[in-house]
Design goal:
Blueprint: H1 2-19, H2 25-56, H3 61-97, H4 102-117, H5 122-145, H6 157-174, H7 181-192, H8 200-205
Length: 213
Amino acid sequence: MAGGAASVRALLRAANGLLQQRRYRAALAVIKGFRNGAVYGAKIRAPHALVMTFLFKSGSLKEKLKSIAQATYTHSRNLACFVFTYKGLMALQARLQGKKIPFHSFFAACIGGWLVFGENNPINSQIIMYLLSRILFGLSRLAVEKGYVPQPKQDPFPLVAALIWGTVLWLFEYHRETLQPSLQSSMTYLYDDSNVWHDVSDFLIYNKRTDSK
């Protein structure tokens, strides 16, 4: 028993010593990036999948739990693989050129995006749309910061909010099929299901009646 504990302590000391070696830092950063991508993907997707599945999907409890697990696994795996690919390519480019330059980041992320997120499926679609909105805001701020666009005299956010809500509801009402499925489900619940009721049970308590009244 004591010998086993001593072996574990020796193994931990060896592992900690390896982690302190600067020559392995780039490779170790890639491995930890994979770990962080997996954990973060699971933390983000699991609660989202849980809420969306139980709110909008039909089926047995087993089927719902399987759907949640699959969505969580896919998001976690994809993000882990992307971080691994990105950091690996960044380290490789810096080693080949002897320094880090801005193009390295763009190129590495393009390759990772193509390889990992190139498949058009619901999980990847949600991630890409999430990033697209952040990119548009970021590029707008950068354009002002660099002087390509004059600094607005008033906060443009109210106008942006109005245009975005106006556009998305127009698409929902007249071109619904163009919207992402989970957004369609959310808006159907908010704007279509609220037009239908039979009595107080499905007016205040439930969204829809489950009996055959």
